[in-house]
User: Fold this.
Amino acid sequence: MEYKAKHTFGYNLTKFILYVLLTALAVLCLIPFLMMTVNATRTSFEIATGFTLIPGKALPDNWKTVFNYFNLFKGMWNSLKVALPATLLGAYFPALAAYALAFYKFKGNKTIFWVILIFMMIPGTLSLIGFYQLCAALKITNSYIPLTVPAIAASGTVFFLRQYIQASLSPALIEAARIDGASEIFSFHRIVIPIIFPAIATMSIMGFIGNWNSYMLPMIILSKPEKYTLPVMLVSLRSSTDITQNYGAIYLCIAISMIPIILVFITFSRYIISSVSQGAVKE
Assistant:
């Protein structure tokens, strides 16, 4: 009994220390967001001369500065028209490709997999010039097609989902569905996707954040101000006048632009921590 009591005390102490450390880490992670929100309510002079977590009184002036230059909500809508389709396309089609590479044995399977690995190692900036020339030849510049459709070929997502499928999805489930007469596409939608949805949700969050914050490609593809996404608008605001006049307005834009990202993370985070073994079978 004495050993059990000591073991229980040690376990509880370790658990308590772990919770304290995690809480402290969470607070440290939230401080930059708090600073960003507070600076959105302060003047440029206040931001440049001191640090505080007490909100200022310059929020109305910063709001007017932003909307006198561009329509912030228009930029958010444009970014949403890019990020949402790109996220959906970049989740569904890579999942379909990953399932095929994981469960179908065909000639060239390993070759395709190695090609995907090679493309993952190539920086995307190296292909920007050629990609723009292709878009210009197809006459799809100043549209959102080049910003959304290429998400179908997200090599990193294919690689991650393939590894996840091999680790979490039992072939017996697919074989049982085939014996029962289910089609391959039915099995994919009703069996595969529910089991690997935590992985899809994880990659969707990353994809949405990446597409929402994308700056380089929209800046190159889009030349009409009414089609600018939010990051392009933010940079144009920063370079419009002397930077010392725009600190508070820039912080306000950044703070507002974070709202959709936070909402997406809150919505899908519960799927990330859900059990990945739900619906599995024991062989």
